Request: fold
Amino acid sequence: MKRILAFLFFCAAAAWGADEAKAVEEAERGWARGVTANDFALLEKVLAPDLVYTHSNGKVDSRDSYIGALRSGASRYIKVEYSELKVRLLTPDIATANCRALIVTMQQGKETPMNLALLHVFKKNGGQWQMVAHQSARLP
Reply:
């Protein structure tokens, strides 16, 4: 009987983990949709109020300054194309997404493609996964 209960618990935990990983991936992809479509309502949903967003050039933004740069047109994303996206659940309310992506931005009137490695940290706030940290690095 104990083995059966242990097996059922393991199956339930695995199912929970798969559902949560899908939810984190959806939040990750929500960020990509939000920045490419300038969907500020979506970005406010998937980016935590205390976000620390560190760009590949070392510039650091808060959620408000990041979204503000998108609203003003100072920052513009054309494309986010993932080649790799791996979600890890660290605790029931903390997860990471390790990604590689081709990101195309508009800089000084020119499309600028960048191959980036991304580390995103997500926290579950009020039942919603939100990005609390972004770190990116340019790949060769």
Notes: The helical segments are 2-37, 40-46, 63-72.
